[in-house]
Amino acid sequence: MKICVFTYGCRVNSYESDAIAKVLRSRGHVVVDDLEYADIYIVNTCAVTAEAERKSRQSVSRIKKINPNAKIIVCGCASQKDYTKFQKEGVRYISGTADKGKIADLIEEEGLGTFELEKDFDQSSADSNKAKIYLKIQDGCNNFCSYCIIPYLRGRARSRTIERCIEEIENTNTKEVVLTGINLSAYGRDIGVELTDLIERLSEVDKRISLGSLEVGVINRRFLQSLKNLKDFCPHFHLSLQSGSNSVLAKMNRKYTREEYLSAVRLIEEYFENPSITTDVIVGFPTESEEDFLDTVDLCKKCAFSDVHVFPYSKREGTVAYKLGELNGKIVKDRAERLEKLRDELRLSYRKKVLGKPCLVLVEEKTDFGYVGYSDRYVRVYLNCAKVGEIREVVPQEIYEDGVKA
Fold first, then answer.
1. Which of 53, 74, 118, 357 is 20 to 30 A distant from 85 in Cα terms?
2. In this structure, which long-range contacts are made by residues 381-389, counting pairs with CB atoms below 8 Å and at least 24 apart in sequence?
3. What is the CA radius of gyration of the chain?
4. At 104, is the secondary structure helix, strand, or coil?
5. How far apart are CA 345 and CA 360, in angstroms?
């Protein structure tokens, strides 16, 4: 049969969808990841924002237009949050965030699956024949930020053992491994180790290594030195900020101050020349004043981010912040637009910094604009001539499209 495995949301979801696809292919099915004609559709959903949840539900209508007779299976955070909304859409089989590794065994089932939160790490493995793979080493979160619904949908933090991480990496044919998790910085705490212990073991691995999103608390000298000791580490740090205001950070239940965040950025800059530091920012949190917002703008300028993911606050029922209400929509929209303008300026400034400097690019695809990949500092690079899947040393010469041209 032809089966579509369609994914919304984070890199962890992408990894889990790849694991489902791997099992299906091993059983002789043809697997695609775009919404095209298929016999069965497996939709791996997201609920991090109201918009993500809405898109997850909308996919069912899109599928029915493509193939009205298709069987549709839904799993993931949106269905974990409220499976009844998918029942109303006529989905044949619905489960939550648990047992995604078993979805391939359930394509003939109908009704409801498992909605209990997992307590142990799911040891499923994903396809390994891509130029770049995401390796899920951690799941769940214990932070309970006041705006975030994910801990209630993913469960407590849990980790893959160091040995299993090394084993999966060594069994891949990939050029780059991106370590990822729902809360990557919490890796290992449940099994008596920490992320730095894993990084130190990765010095044995002959792969390019990248990191997913990090929290401020993991940034210390031992951690950064362990990264610097790797054979091929990409000095791109996605360091989650959310707000540059201490009062808003406290209301968000974030465990750091703006001063501690800036200190972490400066420490990274001590160990790596011109590191790429990207972040997430939520604008319009219910208690955010104009002064709070300007604190965020100020900190973004001081950190000189290479990119900023701007998210208007999304009220999530079941969270602590839900009871705080919402700011006026025009205020939120205005602040988002102002921060997006600064983001564009920061992006351009960082891209100018990499011009004329040699960098290593993993070529990932061929497009109408040429061959495209990402540098070790996570800048999109366009090449006239290359081979998909290779890592090439190039020298960026000019600003081009959403990246640089080499």
1. 118
2. 381/405, 381/406, 382/406, 387/363, 388/131, 388/363, 388/364, 389/131, 389/175, 389/363, 389/364
3. 21
4. helix
5. 24
Query: Could you please report the per-residue DSSP string of 234-293?
Result: --EEEE--B-S-HHHHHHHT-S--HHHHHHHHHHHHHHSSS-EEEEEEEE--TT--HHHH
Which pair of tokens denotes residue 351?
Answer: 């891209």
Q: Is the pTM of this model over 0.85?
A: yes
On whether the CB atoms of residues 381 and 372 are closer than 8 A, the answer is yes
Per the domain annotation, does 123 fall within a domain?
Answer: no
Three-state SS sequence of 215-244: CHHHCCHHHHHHHHCCCCECCEEEECCECC
CB 338 within 8 A of CB 301: no
- Neighbour tally for 390: CB within 10 Å: 13
Instruction: Answer for the pair 65, 138: CB distance below 8 angstroms, yes or no.
Output: no
Q: Which domain holds residue 100?
A: 2-112
Q: Are 328 and 387 contained in the same domain?
A: no
Q: Are residues 150 and 164 in the same domain?
A: yes
Q: Are residues 44 and 28 in the same domain?
A: yes
How far, in Å, CA of 205 to CA of 171, rounded? 11
Evaluate whether residue 44 is within a structural domain. yes
Read off the DSSP letter of residue 308: E
Sheet with strand 380-383: strands edge to edge: 391-394, 359-367, 370-375, 380-383, 403-405, 398-400
Q: Residue 27: what are its φ and ψ, rounded to 5°?
A: -100, 10
Q: Please tell me whether residues 364 and 278 are part of one structural domain.
A: no
pLDDT confidence of 12, banded at 50, 70, 90? very high
Q: Domain holding 16: CATH number? A: 3.40.50.12160
